[in-house]
Specification:
Elements (H helix, E strand, L loop, with lengths): L15 H13 L5 E6 L4 E6 L2 H10 L3 E4 L2 E8 L8 H9 L5 E7 L7 E6 L3 E5 L9 E5 H9 L5 E5 L3
Parallel strand pairs: 2-4, 6-9
Antiparallel strand pairs: 1-2, 3-4, 5-6, 7-8
Helix pairs in contact: 1-4, 2-3
Length: 164
């Protein structure tokens, strides 16, 4: 049963591109090597990354533009000038030093291609987002879920959460 007494001060409605920037902030925001700046007027999200290797890896993981209908959010990673050639290497370089990231392990089988497990801290992350599931406009999820949504899993690379 819903109450007629809803406190509108707790309810924030965000556009889809702002929700997307909040997901990126939730995943990369605690990393001391990354500073995130969102310019709502020009629809540009800038990630200032210390280290060319890490900047290049993040640039390869995130799109340079994300479309939301006819609205396009530009994503700039600054700086980036180094090439990484394996998905596991790209992911490791992108998340190295990020407190959310613990480690990754590549397992090879006798008859299979190598499989890489990217392990994140076992922590529920909350951030504000436009959601009818929570009256306070919060999303509660794990780092692995955010990484899967933003970066996407490819064959042979899986995002996981540490076992307690």
């Amino acid at each position: 049963m819903m109450s007629d007494n809803i406190n509108s001060k707790n309810l924030n409605i965000y556009s889809p591109w702002v929700c997307y920037t909040k997901e990126i902030e939730a995943l990369f925001g605690e990393d001391p090597d990354i500073k995130i700046v969102y310019d709502n007027d020009n629809l540009v999200l800038k990630l200032y990354v210390n280290g060319d290797t890490k900047a290049n890896a993040i640039e390869k993981l995130l799109p340079s533009e994300q479309a939301f209908g006819d609205v396009i959010l530009k994503i700039n990673i600054i700086p980036s000038n180094e090439f990484l050639n394996t998905r596991a290497g790209i992911i490791e370089a992108a998340f190295k030093g990020n407190p959310a990231y613990l480690y990754q392990k590549t397992v090879t089988g006798a008859f299979t291609n190598p499989v890489t497990y990217v392990v994140f801290k076992n922590k529920v992350v909350q951030y504000g987002i436009d959601s009818l599931k929570d009256i306070n406009g919060l999303r509660s999820t794990l780092y692995q879920d955010i990484a899967t949504e933003l970066v996407g899993e490819e064959e042979g690379v899986f995002f996981c959460t540490e076992k307690e």
